[in-house]
């Protein structure tokens, strides 16, 4: 299949620029794979679509303030750095702007000279490797000096203070993501409690959302695209709950494409889940046989993106594109701060 097969028209005004006042007030389009029907609903009715033996699996990764603004030394030119992953102590793989001016040996200062770094390597894809020279605890400095790494389609010169809380799930606990697992942004403690009160079990995995999740697909033949590995961890408790639920006829409800990627990366041939930590290197495209995820809650994704391709693999390209056209016609809100879709 070709990348152009995963395209759709989206008016700019449907790209959500801010979260709703209440997290759980989002709309939810219910997509039924069995009969191809579409139903307009609301996220706070999610518990009504769950069954007693289901397990709802959440990604508890926590977004850290990975965007650093600095200046080149000694010229003073502005520099923006997005921290992607720590390679070794104080050494980070980053996206940086303006990339062409950040050659090996370039020195950068952040936070009025409280933090310094030097470019020590470059790559053909525009990324850089920088080494920090931190006289204080680097993690604490990043938390203090960094900004919430909002995606570029949220058009702001600088993040708002409330983004630190709203671009984060209420159950986020494991720091390490540079983007939020956005399907989880709709949950509130009240919705989670309602799910629990119904006797439906919830459990958590961790997948630290990295550059691979939102990196553009640069090949037309999607079979040649590879999503970069992302760190993930699945506990023995979660693996056991999932396996027990499946034996009892329950469904595994994956909250977000990142949860799907972690679960499918850990799946065994007999469709059980292997507990442990590792790198999720799986790229999911149409033709993938889903071994674990039965239901998917997800936001609406960018055209021609690996996430839209993953969702199409789960529900079928034609059904998903029809659902997207319906969402556009019904004025759903799209992307990170937008509405959601429940695929059953």
What do you see in this structure?
- By secondary structure, the chain is an alpha/beta fold.
- It has 2 domains: 3-63 and 165-343, QueA-like (3-Layer(aba) Sandwich), CATH 3.40.1780; 67-145, QueA-like (Thrombin, subunit H, Beta Barrel), CATH 2.40.10.240.
- The chain has 8 helices and 17 strands.
- The strands form 3 sheets. Strands 2-1-17-16-14-3-12-13-15 form a 9-stranded mixed β-sheet.
- Strand 8 (107-110) and strand 9 (115-122) form a beta hairpin.
- Helix 7 (306-315) packs across helix 8.
- It is globular.
- The protein starts with 26 loop residues before the first strand and ends with a strand.
Would you kindly provide a brief summary of this structure?
The protein is α/β, with parallel strands linked by helices and 344 residues long.
List the helices and strands and how they pair.
Elements: E1 27-31, E2 38-42, E3 55-59, E4 61-63, E5 67-73, E6 78-88, E7 91-97, E8 107-110, E9 115-122, E10 127-133, H1 138-145, H2 163-166, E11 174-177, H3 189-197, E12 201-207, H4 211-214, E13 230-234, H5 236-247, E14 252-255, H6 257-265, E15 276-280, E16 295-299, H7 306-315, H8 317-329, E17 340-343
Parallel strand pairs: 1-17, 3-12, 3-14, 4-11, 14-16
Antiparallel strand pairs: 1-2, 5-6, 5-8, 6-7, 7-10, 8-9, 9-10, 12-13, 13-15, 16-17
Helix pairs in contact: 7-8
Q: What is the helix content?
A: 10-25%
Record field, number of beta strands: 17
Query: Could you say which overall geometry the principal axes of the C-alpha atoms support?
Result: globular
Kindly state the mean pLDDT as a whole number? Answer: 95
**Main beta sheet: strand number and arrangement?**
9 strands, mixed
In which order are the strands of the major sheet placed? 2-1-17-16-14-3-12-13-15
Please report the distance between the alpha carbons of the first and last residues.
Answer: 24 Å
Q: Quote the CATH topology of the largest domain.
A: QueA-like
Q: Approximately how much beta-strand content do the residues carry?
A: 25-35%
Tell me which CATH architecture of the largest domain applies here: 3-Layer(aba) Sandwich
- The number of helical elements comes to 8
Indicate the structural class.
alpha/beta
Order of helices and strands: EEEEEEEEEEHHEHEHEHEHEEHHE
**How many separate domains make up the residues?**
2
Described by its quaternary structure, the protein is single chain
Low-confidence stretches: none
**What's the CATH H-level homologous superfamily of the largest domain?**
QueA-like
Top-tier CATH class of the largest domain? Alpha Beta
Q: If you compute it from the alpha carbons, what radius of gyration comes out, rounded to the nearest whole angstrom? A: 20 Å
């Amino acid at each position: 299949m070709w990348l152009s097969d995963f395209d759709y028209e989206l008016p700019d005004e449907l790209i959500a620029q801010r979260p709703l006042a209440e997290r759980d007030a989002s709309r939810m389009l219910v997509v039924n794979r069995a009969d191809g029907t579409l139903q307009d609903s609301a996220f706070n009715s999610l518990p009504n679509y769950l069954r007693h033996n289901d397990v709802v699996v959440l990604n508890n990764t926590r977004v850290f303030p990975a965007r650093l603004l600095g200046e080149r030394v000694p010229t003073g030119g502005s520099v923006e750095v997005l921290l992607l992953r720590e390679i070794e102590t104080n050494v980070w793989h980053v996206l940086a702007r303006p990339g062409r001016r950040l050659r090996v040996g370039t020195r950068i200062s952040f936070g009025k000279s409280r933090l310094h770094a030097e470019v020590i390597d470059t790559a053909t894809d525009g990324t850089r490797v920088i080494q920090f020279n931190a006289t204080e605890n680097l993690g604490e400095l990043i938390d203090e000096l960094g900004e919430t790494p909002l995606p570029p389609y949220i058009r702001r010169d600088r993040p708002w203070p409330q983004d630190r809380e709203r671009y984060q799930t209420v159950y986020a606990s494991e720091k390490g993501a540079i983007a939020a697992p956005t399907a989880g942004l709709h949950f509130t403690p009240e919705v989670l409690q309602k799910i629990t009160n119904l006797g439906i079990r919830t459990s958590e995995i961790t997948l630290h959302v990295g550059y691979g999740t939102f990196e553009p697909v640069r090949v037309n033949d999607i079979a040649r695209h590879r999503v970069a590995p992302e760190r993930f961890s699945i506990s023995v408790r979660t693996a056991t709950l999932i396996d027990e639920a499946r034996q009892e006829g329950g469904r595994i409800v994956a909250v977000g494409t990142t949860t799907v990627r972690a679960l499918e990366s850990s799946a065994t041939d007999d469709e059980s889940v292997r507990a442990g930590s590792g790198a999720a290197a799986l790229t999911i495209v149409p033709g993938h046989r889903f071994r674990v995820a039965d239901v998917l809650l997800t936001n609406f994704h960018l055209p021609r993106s690996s996430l839209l391709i993953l969702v199409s693999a789960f529900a079928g390209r034609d059904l998903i594109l029809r659902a997207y056209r319906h969402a556009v016609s019904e004025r759903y809100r799209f992307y990170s701060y937008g509405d959601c879709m429940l695929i059953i």
